[in-house]
Design goal:
The protein has eight helices and six strands, in the order βααααβαβαβαββα. With about 210 residues, the protein is an alpha/beta fold. The chain has two domains: about 5-15 and about 90-210, Rossmann fold; about 20-85. The protein has a six-stranded parallel β-sheet, with helices on both faces. α7 (about 170-180) links the parallel β4 and β5 (about 180-185).
């Protein structure tokens, strides 16, 4: 079993069951804007990517009166309200984090913005385990580009080859592999066939524990 210096966690779909809640927040904002189901956005196409990517395409399609910044902030506020109310940390995730924190350095590399990341990591007292947190705000290009994982390794002071990434999206898997890291994909958001580029595909957090030998 290969030993890693650092384990890098994606957040949405890995730490927190937020993907359906992202969609709900977007739908509610679209509804409040008067679009209802006429928004024309394919949410699955943006899985693992940043809100900005979706909003850029939405603005190009509809030319709303609101600015990109206003739309991003509106949806972020609604998402945070939902996350605070429901606290949807995946069962099994806190135990996994506590176990891998013994003997590994931990980081989060997320396509979400820092305010959302901090809200999530405040749940279940998770923030204490992660020495480094990197957002899409901190890099030039979001996933599937490798920027966010390379920046995380740089901040940790370890080589990409020493890092193992835990992801749930095809874009995230692609980014991790492009960064030269080992990637574990968990089928929280997509079927295994869509994650086949990963080094290993699992269905549970217990399988991740066994694979990492913790």
């Amino acid at each position: 079993m290969k030993k890693f210096s650092a384990i890098i966690f994606d957040m949405d779909g890995v730490i927190v069951d937020s993907e359906p809640r992202h969609i709900r927040a977007f739908r509610e904002v679209f509804g409040a804007m008067g679009y209802g189901e006429r928004h024309g956005m394919d949410f699955e196409a943006y899985l693992g990517r940043s809100d900005r990517a979706l909003w850029l395409d939405f603005v190009a399609k509809h030319q709303p009166k609101e600015t990109l910044e206003e739309l991003t902030a509106w949806k972020q506020r609604r998402l945070i309200e939902i996350l605070r109310a429901e606290q949807p940390i995946f069962p099994g995730l806190p135990d996994l984090v506590a176990k891998v924190a013994v003997g590994h350095r931990l980081a989060v590399a997320s396509g979400s913005l820092h305010p959302v990341i901090e809200e999530v990591l405040a749940l279940k007292n998770l923030r204490r385990f992660f020495e480094t947190v990197v957002s899409v705000q901190d890099v030039a290009h979001g996933k599937p580009a490798p920027d966010i994982f390379l920046r995380t390794a740089e901040l940790l002071g370890v080589s990409p080859a020493e890092c193992c990434v835990i992801e749930d999206s095809a874009a995230g898997v692609q980014a991790g592999k492009a960064a030269g890291m080992t990637v574990i994909a968990i089928t929280n958001s997509l079927p295994a066939a869509r994650l086949a580029q990963a080094d290993v595909v699992v269905g549970t957090y217990a399988e991740i524990e066994r694979w990492l030998g913790v």
